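Please check this one:

***
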Amino acid sequence: MAFYSYDKYSMTVITGYLYAQRHTAVVTDTGVNNIMSMFYTPNIKVYRGIDNFIRIEFKNRDQKRVSMTDHTANIVILDKENNVAFLERSLTPIDPRRGIFEALISEADLLNLDSKFFSYGLKVTNGEDRTTPAYADDNYSANGVLEIDEGVYPTFVDSTSETFTSGDTGSNISIKPYINRNTAQHTAQIYFSSAFTGTLTIQGSINPSNSIQNADFTDITSKTYTAQEDNDFINFTGVFSAVRFVRATTTGTLSEVLYRP
């Protein structure tokens, strides 16, 4: 698959490759010798924001395809450092006579998992209801490596809520200035629980977020309201390490600000 971009003077061609992830797992087979043929299974890579489909090909120790028509298989994702199993999913038979199954790691499965390296294991159950591991390398290792990557499909991040529970000067909201760089767009949605007369000032700081003091904040923008009841929003731009909201009330209540960098 190729994507083409043209301008008046040149042509740029970017090539994107579409292919399924295929991984090999070995099941014990008494009909072959006890020597494991050398092979290497690469890491499974899964991405946030999409459903991930991974083909698993089961073979014997001679690297021959095996029939899995009377077998079922599961994949388990675990954190061996903390001895925690996070999820277990059944594999879908694609061509069981040739030992080909498919694992689905869904978008929802990854929501509560950190982006890092995990271990995975494959459990195979035969027609006699006997469960054994499938091996991920030539050293009879029952665990492979699964990597969660969120760089390609970023996850949705909830807005930060400021409700002024500690007073009219809101809390310091740390942000990552490198995310949007110099075109950083910020949005604040303002809510009123009664007709509000007063001002809302947005302040920002460029100092490191772990050492910010009150004096480090400067005013970015300010908006004055008179008997305001309908929700409002404010957009502003700039690169900051932290922002905060300052409310000055004459009458009424400005109850909440939802902020998204």
